[in-house]
Write a structure and sequence with these properties.
The protein is 15% helix and 13% strand. It contains one helix and four strands. The strands form two sheets. The chain has a two-stranded antiparallel sheet. It is elongated. The termini are far apart.
Length: 79
């Protein structure tokens, strides 16, 4: 799934579970809530295959605004 920025990986799993009416839904690696990108989702009996999915390291691409500072040191904080 192309996870948007905002929801956690768990939030995405819950929404898929509700939308499809499937009891077993999982993911093969967490993406930070502020990150968007590929979230591998497993459905039904396929959730047992998670240990066999390659666990390549995550790669993040970001943008910086030089000279900007927030109270939380991320985009969610107040400038």
């Amino acid at each position: 799934m192309d996870k948007p920025e905002g929801p956690s990986s768990h939030d995405v799993v819950v929404s898929i579970r509700k939308a499809l009416g499937i009891g077993k839904v999982g993911h093969a690696g967490t993406l930070d809530p502020l990150a968007g990108g590929l979230l591998v989702v497993l459905l039904g009996v396929a959730t047992k295959l998670a240990p066999y999915i390659p666990s390549d390291p995550k790669v993040y691409r970001g943008t910086m605004i030089l000279g900007m500072k927030t109270d939380t040191m991320d985009l969610e904080g107040r400038p």
